[in-house]
Amino acid sequence: MPSIANLVRSVLRVLRRRQPLWIPLRSGALRVTTRHWVLVLAWIVIVVLAYQTGRDIFFRVAYLILAVEIFSFVWAAYSIAMFRLERQTITPRSQVGRFVEEQFLSYNTGRLTKPWIEVRDESELPAHRASRVLNALGARVRWGWTVRTVCRRRGRFRMGPVTVATGDPFGLFVFHRRLRDTTGAVTVYPATVDLVTFAPAQGQLPGGEALQRRTHHITTNVAGTREYAPGDSFNRIHWRSTARMERLIVKEFELDPSADVWIYLDMERDVQISRWYEETWNERDLSSLWLKSQQLRLPPSTEEYGVTIAASIAKYFLRQQRAVGFAAYGHEREIVQPDRGERQLNRLLEVLAVLRAEGRIRFADLLTLEGAHLGRNNTLIAITPSAELEHVKVLREMKRRGLRVIAVIADANTFGGHADTDHAAIELLASGAPTYVVKEGDDLARALGK
What is the separation of C-alpha 307 from the centre of its chain, rounded to a whole number of angstroms? Predict the structure, then answer.
């Protein structure tokens, strides 16, 4: 009997560690619980007693425990194999402050009831709580649920994969399986604010010559006609030419004689300032952000403020039927050629969603390199948190060339930095360039509408 006591003490020493044994399998992993080891210990003790005493009761109990172990293992393996999960992302594209919605449909394809099954989601979208524990999922039963998550950060996030776990009714074995066909992606656009006014007003934009550039938009400048092609709108059909040629003829248009608007965004890493960021922001209660107030509150980061300002200004001018272009040097060179319409706005938001302040090129160099291609009939909007005078000199020189220059400065001092923002703003105003200074916590609609 001393040998049995030593065996019991050694097994209990292992159980105190509470480190479950993981066994990798081809389709997942098996976790052996503490209950299993307790039952194994009891089975060993009973087997020893059975051989020492020779009583039938110990042999029967040992056979019963062995049967329970085999039954539990088969049950758990069968349950994890007979489970299917379907995932559908309703909104593959959303915006900061809006919702991402997903639908899940679980299906027990087996003939046994699953006492419990855990669905664990591994999505990258912050605060996306799609994980569930399903209880008593009957045979051939389907059960679905919908998850709606408020988007807190811009970017492109992986949705999934999903890992499911289930076990036997006695809690001896737990099988884990990763469902790789439940992986997708969601793009979250940056937030935008509706600007009522912004300098220059529509009547103050400098005019230009008619641009010899074809466009799919309908304008007042007809460039010519051509034969109808599948996909052309019926309101583009020129009926007189159609009647004369006896086949469908459509009109082609050119851009209006107006100025292009270029937005240059400073994404240099060394000039960006933030007080605190991702983890603390993701844990905040959203009720004070969007649900009770119409004023959008952004993370205290000059990067997020700059991206939101650029998106809002682009939306404002696109609504004014202006052609808007974009340039920034982040983790790579991002150039979007000027265009109009809703498709251009989506293109700009797509770029801004994944743009990060990882650039090494100074904003003055960006203005010099990209601004050399701008003509006199263009408007340049420079957005930067930097108060350096080098880019101020470049903007002043571009204004002398005949460009319309507008500056937006995110005051780094209010974000925890130290910069002479007032001096840079005074220099820009002295050169005749409209200048906006945005501080942390400002209402962007008011700050940019002054």
Answer: 14
Q: Are 312 and 193 in contact (CB under 8 A)?
A: yes
Comparing 27 with 408, the larger pLDDT belongs to: 408
pLDDT single digits (tens) 287-332: 444 443 445 778 889 999 999 999 999 999 999 888 999 999 998 9
State the average pLDDT for the chain.
Answer: 85
Q: Which of 3.20.20.140, 2.60.40.10, 3.60.15.10, 2.160.10.10 is the CATH number of 82-189?
A: 2.60.40.10
Query: Which residues make beta-bridge pairs with 214?
Result: 254
pTM, to two decimals: 0.79
